[in-house]
Design brief:
It is a single chain. By secondary structure, the protein is mainly α. It has one domain.
Length: about 120
């Protein structure tokens, strides 16, 4: 098993724990706002089986299919993070939330893409 697959599972579990902590502290809006952060690692986990199935239908390379799948997941994550950030009243807090979450997702995606292409 690829080491980054295990790392992605760990990231997903940590994000779910963070969301659970927010739920227990009765911060449902924060609990929902952090869930999109799990989309990028989940997409990486699912991308390999999806790419293998899709390569049987289309003559594309498996790595290219995975890349398209993961970049699509990154775009969806960005859209969802933007939507959830609209619930944050303070403009400074909203911008900080978006910048930090976007940086996390982009850096993680770059690492995953690099690992996929190598």
């Amino acid at each position: 098993m690829n080491n980054l697959i295990v790392d992605c599972w760990v990231i997903v579990v940590i994000i779910l724990i963070i969301s659970g902590v927010f739920l227990r502290s009765r911060r449902k809006d924060y609990a929902l706002a952090v869930l999109p952060l799990a989309i990028v690692p989940l997409a990486h986990i699912v991308s390999s089986p999806v790419a293998i199935l899709a390569s049987k239908i289309h003559p594309w390379e498996i790595a290219d299919i995975r890349l398209g799948f993961e970049v699509t997941a990154l775009v969806i994550t960005g859209i969802l993070l933007t939507q959830f950030s609209l619930q944050i009243k303070s403009k400074v807090s909203r911008n900080a939330f978006l910048v930090l979450c976007a940086a996390f997702c982009i850096i993680l995606e770059l690492v995953l893409i690099y690992n996929t292409k190598v």
